[in-house]
Amino acid sequence: MKSVVIAAAVSAALFSCASFAAPGFVDAGPNLSDNGASGAWTALYATRNPAGSEFAIAPDASFRLGILSSIGIGMEVGPVDNFADEIDDLIDALDRDDLTLSEGNALVNRFNSILGPLSRDGYVKVHGGVQVPLFPILYRSNLGVFTLDANISAQARLGFLDSPLTYNSVSEEVETASAAYIKAGRVDEIALGFSRPVWQQPGRRLIVGGNLRYLQATLSKEVVALEAIDEDDDVEDVLKDSYDVNEHKSSNVTVDVGAIYDASNYRVGVTFANLTEPDFEYGAIGSNCGVLSGSAQYNCFTAAYFSNRIALNETWTLERLATLEGAVFFASGKGSLAASVDLNDVHDPVGDLNQNLKVALGYKTQTNWLPDLRVGYRKNLAGSELSSASLGFTFFGAVHLDVSCALESTNIDGNSVPRTAAFNLGFEMGY
């Protein structure tokens, strides 16, 4: 499928130029499927709720760390059939300069009937995350559990800005101001966390924790006029060539706090993330166009043309997010049923809204002959409102494999394909 090729190619480009660090937009490791129902799956539970590090390391252990805890990639497409192919066909039509009147009018009628839906609902989005090797590192002391984490996450999104097609009988061409709109973000993160019990009685206790996070965000956006695209290029090339144009790098610090009430067979928790709501700036577009030349100038004027529809100067705010979670355990602690819900929606770096509801069921076989198993369901209560199912395995207590797939679909070349999918692979020190 073409969207998979785009996702793989652009994700490789995003990570090839990046240093390590940051919260993954694809949930890291087993968190993709398990929803953090039980910290023993992975040390990465400590990166969800700051109090969770208490459960991510064995009670009698001093250290736990990742080998390569998680590397993941995901993609999402809008509810428009053949979105990328339609844009490619439009690019090809704009490159022709030998159109008859009937051919030109046919192209005008064809594309003007679909430009609105392409602009409103069409997009291709790729995202991924990588943990720095050996991270997170957990250390249990008499004071509590300390966590040091380093990771990177990245996103890129290609959308469409529409303008009517017309036929120029003099040049024998079709013309439009329509453009591709690319936004991309990379967030590098280093986090220091601490958790400890503050109250306990036989069979129950209260754990609190906090994270101090340093984030460096590299954000970019670009408007690419379709008429300025080379005739041999397609949507994949546009996204790969434009995701890092007009990059702007900025840094900030934020704080998360969390608490977990732990009883013998259930657990409830709350997390308050991004308390300082740090801001990060995009590179500006659509200004000082006169000092540019060639296609860069053309794209600059095109961005200014769409200034009533997009922000030429934009700031991304990492908004506060409150999350409730809970889990019940059965089969002597081998099985778990967990759920969590975000209490508010937040924007990701490319501007999409996210508010997740998650449910997960897991079972630890406690044997190397059979892998541990987890299945999950999630629903974005805002933005795309997509839902997905996930499946994960842990082999030998240390190797994690998790995949997820949307329950909604769109059509590509006559075939029904899921609108979103993600994949994670990781290797950690055993629990």
What's the topology here?
Blueprint: H1 2-16, H2 31-34, E1 63-77, H3 83-94, H4 101-112, H5 115-121, E2 124-131, E3 137-140, E4 145-161, E5 166-168, E6 173-175, E7 179-201, E8 204-225, H6 235-242, E9 248-263, E10 266-273, E11 279-281, H7 294-305, E12 315-317, E13 321-330, E14 335-342, E15 346-347, E16 353-354, E17 356-363, E18 372-380, E19 387-395, E20 399-406, E21 409-412, E22 415-418, E23 420-428
Antiparallel strand pairs: 1-2, 1-3, 1-23, 2-4, 3-4, 4-7, 5-6, 7-8, 8-9, 9-10, 10-13, 11-12, 13-14, 14-17, 15-16, 17-18, 18-19, 19-20, 20-23, 21-22
Helix pairs in contact: 1-6
Protein name: Conjugal transfer protein TraF
Organism: Steroidobacter flavus
InterPro entries: Put_conjugal_transfer
- The parts where pLDDT drops under 50 for at least 5 residues are 15-24
Assess the beta-strand content as a share of residues.
over 45%
**Anisotropy-based shape:** elongated
Order of helices and strands: HHEHHHEEEEEEEHEEEHEEEEEEEEEEEE
Q: Supply Rg.
A: 24 Å
Tally of structural domains = 1
Largest sheet: 15 strands, antiparallel
How many helices does DSSP assign? 7
Class based on secondary structure composition and strand pairing? alpha+beta
End-to-end separation in angstroms reads: 38 Å
Helix coverage percent? 10-25%
Q: Using DSSP, what is the number of strands? A: 23
What is the averaged pLDDT score? 87
Protein name: Conjugal transfer protein TraF
InterPro entries: Put_conjugal_transfer
Keywords: Signal
Pfam families: TraF_2 (PF13729)
